[in-house]
Write a structure and sequence with these properties.
The chain has 199 residues and is of the alpha+beta class. The chain contains eight helices and seven strands, in the order H-H-E-E-H-E-E-E-E-H-H-E-H-H-H. Strands 3-4-5 form a three-stranded antiparallel sheet, with helices on one face. A two-stranded antiparallel sheet has the order 1-2. Strands 6-7 form a two-stranded antiparallel ribbon. InterPro entries: GmrSD_C.
Length: 199
């Protein structure tokens, strides 16, 4: 009985890390009202390589390694900054992983979505900064399959299966779009407003 209770308690206290810089509901609503609403323009010119990603962000840590260290529980890293131990609980689906290669680093606002909503006009340096932003809520440690299911979808097309993260997800999305002056479509705006209603 004690072993069963310990297992239940252990699973109940899994550490779910949330990236920094997510605004409150009221701030998110204010930011959302100031975003430019415009059609998403997919002209077929997007290429992931236009966003240099997993660049060095601190010492010998690249952005991916930095987020694995930041958002894991009990993480230890080697001299190359790659994790040697730790666990990561995905905020999107609640799954916990202990193998770093099973964890994907999700660009909350996908690179393709950014390209279609303003980033096509940026310099390469600006796109690199966006793709490696560890200071705001743009990079999340998530389950690989869930990240693949999301793909380049905006919130009107995909939302995390864990509904208890929807408020923070929407607020984070709005913050990133506001920080980088990216547009939102009308359906995206409506979906974000709906998600904020679950706060």
């Amino acid at each position: 009985m004690k072993a069963v209770l310990a297992a239940v308690l252990s699973s109940a206290i899994a550490v779910v890390a949330i990236p920094p810089g997510i605004p409150s509901e009221s701030t998110a609503r204010s930011l959302l009202s100031s975003l430019t609403v415009a059609p998403t323009v997919n002209d077929g010119t997007y290429d992931r390589d236009l966003f240099p990603h997993w660049s060095a962000v601190e010492g010998n840590c690249n952005a991916r390694e930095f987020v694995l260290r930041r958002d894991g529980d009990g993480v230890t890293v080697g001299n190359d900054c790659y994790p040697t131990a730790g666990t990561w609980t995905c905020p999107f689906d609640g799954e916990t992983h202990s193998v770093p290669s099973d964890v994907s680093i999700d660009h909350l606002v996908p690179l393709h979505n950014a390209w279609m909503t303003g980033a096509s006009e940026w310099t390469t340096a600006e796109r690199e900064a966006f793709a490696n932003d560890v200071d705001g809520p743009q990079l999340w440690a998530v389950t690989g399959t869930t990240n693949s299911q999301k793909g380049s979808d905006a919130p009107d097309e995909w939302q995390p299966p864990q509904t208890n993260i929807h408020c923070k997800y929407a607020a984070a999305w709005i913050q990133v779009k506001s920080t980088y002056d990216l547009t939102v479509s009308s359906s995206e705006q409506a979906a974000l407003e709906e998600m904020l209603g679950r706060c």
